[in-house]
Design goal:
The complex is a heterodimer of chains A (about 425) and B (about 325). Chain A has two domains: about 180 residues, Periplasmic binding protein-like II (D-Maltodextrin-Binding Protein, domain 2); about 180 residues, D-Maltodextrin-Binding Protein, domain 2, CATH 3.40.190.10. Helices cover about 35% and strands about 15% of the residues of chain A. Chain A contains 17 helices and 19 strands. In chain A, helix 3 links the parallel strand 1 and strand 2. In chain A, about 50% of the residues are buried. Chain B is mostly helical and about 325 residues long. Helix content of chain B is about 55%, strand content about 5%. Chain B contains 13 helices and seven strands. In chain B, strand 2 and strand 3 form a beta hairpin. The chains are: A alpha/beta (about 425), B mainly alpha (about 325).
Chain lengths: ~425, ~325
């Protein structure tokens, strides 16, 4: 079938050798099959995907369009707008690509329908991280919104960890995030004492930036505050009002003392701060390490002793889907678990829920660098073909298993999310006002 | 407390509105097919929309009106095939019994404006903390500062506002903790009240409600929650308990209205739970219904905690009444 589709559309580019940075492949992938000749009289079916910059990448779209013979329309939004749109306008998309931690609003707003795992061919191959709550029995589970707690549909329409045939979201891409730091300020970190406390460290005063997202950057700040011994949380993944107040009071005090230089909302903004050499330590997302500009060689990924802040993405079904449209969406979900999708994700530093599939589309050097924590033998390229790690580079934190075993907290939308998000919003506004 | 000479003045406002509409439907002044809208009825009765909404739900339960594809309700039972008739209800010559009219008029000046303010003050709270400016409120309502103080002290009595250290009136924020506590309280006291009310529940009323559930697909779970309150729980012979239940529900119902206003779709699972609940009330010892109600309220608590999070992704630049200052 796939061969037939490729023949029909004539659009499938000749694949470059796995793992090589070949620009012609990248160029070809940015073409869109719908603009190429479909057989006369055959309408190309369209799939509408609502999501964030984490997964809505031109390389993913081109690959899926070519493999499935469909057209894919992207509706790309920031995290908050994306949730709002997903909840309020379920008719505007077919697939919702987001994260487990912010599934509550959209699910309990009744905007999604369950996924039947019997229609997911690779369900049994999926990593236990999402399905069981940890990569091994000895791995840290992590506080907050662990994906397993939002995965399975329970009686009464609830979501929970007890396995059932129906799930809320198909687990796909994920990562263990931390922060980046300048070794000239903090030292090489080789003593294993790299700590979240550095995000509030006097040595970086005036050169600290946080990601502005109340389910993400908020926890970078919380981990920093607890690591620095300034605030203690009974459960960092579900804070009380008093704990939120204490954290925000600390952050506000540090802000007044001039600790923070900026807050950013996406990888581009984070990269600009690095290019302008304005930060010594900041929240980081994996792809930004391939875009350090002037800070290249002077900005390291932290493997904090307290553990990581993890997140897990996935894809959900809009409630309006049925019949042929639903079948097409299941094809697309199954496609997400194939080697090609996993390879695009790996090249920007993200892991996939079906790593053994991903491995098939990566060169052994790529697999060694991204998943096995081995030094790169040659230059490593990102999804667009740009070199993101030089030969000899080593990914911080070690292997997939090692990194996944040290999850301190997940990105989380706590019960007191509204309260925390408002307080966070006020704090960020003051940082931005001071910066302008 | 000064009691009015007119006993009806003490009845909840929505009951008075229900009485007026019911008698005019039965008397034919409100013809079959007439579209009933909350706004014009509120204007006619001099009330906010909340009690009108409650009255319309009650009439829907009684089968006197039904939902249709458009906004509002149509007079007459569902399936009568009546075409929607659009007239302003204020142009129709409604019969309002003197004693009801008197009750609507003699509730005290502050009561005329109270419902509206209560709704605005309650529904803003999921969006954060607000300060109420007395002078702005007086101007907004076109009433004196004395009336405003009556309104505010009533809001305070009902637990909707408080004074802060600098003596400003503060509403909200509605936190998850408050929400959870209110539902916990409901799950304790409402099943208890339901048990107490059992001897006073009228079998025919329950059967009528069950019949409506099976025949009127447009019935909402909120209508059934109101019906449970009025026809069962409120019949408990313990006025303190019933009043406590009503007050405890105020914020929760206004959150529900706020979320519905934001487009929260109908909750079919909740509807199904009310179907079961009325079945248990009708056919089984009251303990089974009371226990089921407790479980239902726990489920609603969890759902509402999740749904409330929508406020975190909505812009804070929403329209609030001018006397409410976002802190």
């Amino acid at each position: 079938m796939r061969g037939l589709l490729q023949l029909l559309f004539g659009a499938r580019m000749v694949r470059a050798n796995r793992g090589e940075c070949r620009n012609e492949r990248i160029l070809a992938m940015n073409d869109r099959p719908a603009e190429l000749a479909a057989p006369p009289g055959v309408a190309v079916r369209t799939l509408r995907v609502l999501g964030t910059s984490v997964t809505l990448l031109p390389e993913v779209r081109a690959s899926a369009e070519a493999d499935l013979g469909i057209r894919i329309d992207y509706q790309l939004m920031d995290f908050l707008s994306c949730q709002r749109e997903a909840a309020m306008v379920p008719g505007s998309y077919d697939v919702y690509e987001q994260c487990f931690h912010n599934l509550d609003i959209v699910w309990f707003w009744g905007a999604l329908q369950p996924i039947d795992t019997h229609r997911i061919g690779d369900w049994d191959r999926l990593s236990p991280l999402a399905k069981e709550g940890g990569i091994s029995n000895y791995a840290w589970r992590g506080h907050g919104d662990a994906p397993v707690g939002k995965l399975y549909v329970q009686p009464g329409g609830f979501l929970g960890p007890k396995p059932s045939r129906q799930v809320s979201m198909l687990p796909t891409v994920h990562n263990m995030d931390s922060f980046g730091y300048d070794p000239r300020v903090f030292g090489s970190g080789e003593d294993g004492q790299v700590s979240w406390a550095w995000l509030l460290d006097r040595r970086a005063k005036g050169r600290i930036a946080l990601v502005d997202e109340p389910a993400i950057g908020f926890f970078d700040a919380a981990l920093a505050a607890e690591a620095a011994g300034e605030v203690q949380f009974a459960n960092i993944g579900n804070m009380t009002i008093a704990e939120i107040d204490r954290l925000m009071a600390l952050l506000e005090e540090r802000r007044r003392q001039g600790y923070f230089c900026a807050a950013w909302r996406d990888g581009e903004e984070a990269a600009r701060l690095l290019h302008a050499e304005r930060v010594s330590v900041q929240s980081m997302w994996a792809p930004v390490y391939g875009n350090l500009g002037a800070m290249e060689g002077h900005f390291s990924e932290a493997a904090p002793k307290e553990g990581y802040r993890a997140w897990h993405g996935g894809a959900s079904l809009s409630r309006h889907l049925s019949g042929g449209q639903l079948d097409m969406v299941y094809d697309y979900l199954n496609w997400w678990l194939t080697a090609d999708a996993g390879a695009v994700m790996a090249r920007q530093g993200y892991y996939m829920s079906t790593p053994e599939r991903t491995r098939a589309a990566l060169s052994s050097d790529e697999w060694g660098y991204w998943y096995d924590g081995l030094p790169a033998r040659g230059d490593i390229c990102g999804p667009s073909g740009k070199v993101v790690a030089r030969a000899g580079a080593l990914r911080a934190g070690g292997t997939y298993l090692e990194r996944t075993s040290r999850i301190a907290v997940w990105n989380t939308v706590m019960e007191e999310y509204n309260y925390a998000a408002r307080a966070w919003g006020r704090f960020i506004r003051r940082i931005n006002e001071a910066a302008t | 407390m000064i009691r009015s000479a007119n006993p009806l003045a003490l009845e909840p406002r929505y009951e008075l509105i229900t009485q007026v509409l019911r008698s005019n439907i039965l008397g034919g002044q409100l013809p079959v097919g007439l579209v009933l809208l909350e706004g014009p009825i509120g204007a006619l009765m001099g009330t906010s929309r909340a009690p009108v909404q409650a009255a319309l739900r009650q009439l829907q339960i009684e089968g006197l009106i039904h939902r249709f594809e458009g906004r509002g309700f149509l007079v007459g039972p569902e399936g009568a095939g009546a075409e929607p008739l659009r007239h302003d209800i204020r142009d129709l010559d409604l019969t309002i019994a003197d004693h009801v009219d008197g009750a609507l008029q003699t509730r005290g000046t502050w009561k005329h404006v109270y419902d509206q303010v209560e709704e605005q003050v309650a529904s803003c709270q999921i969006f954060g903390e607000f300060r109420i400016v007395e002078t702005e409120l007086a101007q907004y309502l076109g009433v004196s500062r004395t009336v405003v103080r009556d309104v505010l002290s009533r809001l305070q009595e009902r637990g909707l506002i408080r004074k802060n250290a600098s003596s400003h009136w503060i509403a909200g924020p509605l936190t998850a903790r408050t929400m959870r506590e209110k539902f916990e309280l409901r799950a304790i006291v409402e099943p208890a009240a339901l048990r107490l009310s059992a001897p006073h529940i009228e079998e025919a009323v329950i059967e009528a409600i069950r019949d409506r559930i099976e025949t009127d697909a447009s019935l909402s779970w909120q209508a059934l929650e109101d019906a449970l309150m009025e026809h069962c729980i409120a019949k408990a012979e313990n006025a303190t308990l019933v009043e406590m239940i009503r007050n405890n529900r105020l914020l929760l119902s206004s959150v529900d209205r706020a979320l519905t206003g934001l487009g929260l779709p109908p909750d079919d699972i909740a509807l199904d739970q009310y179907r079961m609940l009325f079945h248990l009330i009708a056919r089984h010892p009251i303990d089974s219904a009371a226990e089921y109600l407790r479980g239902h309220l726990q489920i609603m608590a969890r759902k509402n905690l999740a749904r409330m999070k929508i406020a975190g992704v909505l812009s804070e630049m929403r329209d609030f009444a001018p006397y409410l200052i976002h802190q």
